[in-house]
């Protein structure tokens, strides 16, 4: 008799262990991100807020190459390319060698990510269609995994590994959908020649990494040239990061111990992404003067669209898509889990920060008249989602702790929890 399908069932032990190591890195990065955002908010609302704006407006870089960008632009165009490079590596790793290479396992987080994109976009568009600001429809569609995991770390939750893996994969697929949206809908002036020229260094980079070349002095200039040409083409430069990540092979050419090249690059660049790139971007992007914006900014259609899109739209989209997968596949939740767990995770998905702020800048322009409303909406919606998710998951925390304690006892000398061995049996 076949085993009934289970939603949020355990994956394999190697994947669970890898995800655990990865989540610890992202959690530290999330705490740094939150800290950078808090510093930016305090500075932007202090008597010295003019100095904060002046710092982000400092221009550096060679003008001859059209790279004389402000520090804020370098953070969003340059540093976030590192973030999306790591996201590209992780996404390829999940679908090539991870548990999600199985379409049955991939269907749930992919469906949840799509649902969590569509519903917030519909809510934002409905509130802004008559106001002429519907161009920002994609702002509330992304989940910030680092911020979400920082919330989990603060509330000390013992969320089961399968749910943590789902949250991570949901966010990674969100990033893919977001970068696709950026490339298609937020490219105003496309210059085909630089974009075509970018294929040359990208192809050379791909050839080298396919041959397992790790020499930074060969790969880094090609990556930088690809980034520069994509930037010159009018396509947002973070797209280059994703393309470079997709070019890196996941599987080792010869069998043997040690990580593959994609995992090797992840270990090298994830600390740079989580510890430097994202927090620096958050510092320059999150600073909004609530004092200057006034109370009316909270009632603006853009602000309301972002807040409701993140808090309500993400929850309805992720939870609804999960229910639909369960309904049409007749699968059941894994043993010990309930729909309250899924609800808490869905609300947590409403923490949209890094990519939401980036799309807000692309939609309305940094420093525009709507820029303050976008930031207030993203911060308010993310904070509301974090608080409500914390309450829900805190209620479930005692049960998570008991489940985790039972699994920790149930292991043997090989260091692999017996629940994973029984699953394979």
Short structural summary:
With 425 residues, the chain is mainly α. The protein has helices at 13-44, 49-56, 71-96, 103-128, 145-155, 161-185, 192-210, 216-233, 238-247, 261-285, 290-293, 301-329, 339-348, 354-364, 371-409, 418-424; strands at 6-7, 59-60, 69-70, 332-333.
Q: How do the strands and helices of this protein lay out in sequence?
A:
Blueprint: E1 6-7, H1 13-44, H2 49-56, E2 59-60, E3 69-70, H3 71-96, H4 103-128, H5 145-155, H6 161-185, H7 192-210, H8 216-233, H9 238-247, H10 261-285, H11 290-293, H12 301-329, E4 332-333, H13 339-348, H14 354-364, H15 371-409, H16 418-424
Parallel strand pairs: 1-4
Antiparallel strand pairs: 2-3
Helix pairs in contact: 1-5, 1-6, 1-10, 3-6, 3-9, 3-10, 4-6, 4-12, 5-15, 7-8, 8-9, 12-13, 12-15, 13-15, 14-15
Low-confidence stretches: none
| Helix/strand class | mainly alpha
* Largest beta-sheet details: 2 strands, parallel
Give the tally of β-strands: 4
The radius of gyration over CA amounts to 22 Å
Named at the architecture level, the CATH assignment of the domain at 6-69 and 105-177 and 281-406 is: Up-down Bundle
Q: Give the N-terminus to C-terminus distance in angstroms.
A: 14 Å
User: What spatial form do the alpha-carbon principal axes imply?
Assistant: globular
CATH third-level topology of the domain at 6-69 and 105-177 and 281-406: Na+/H+ antiporter like fold
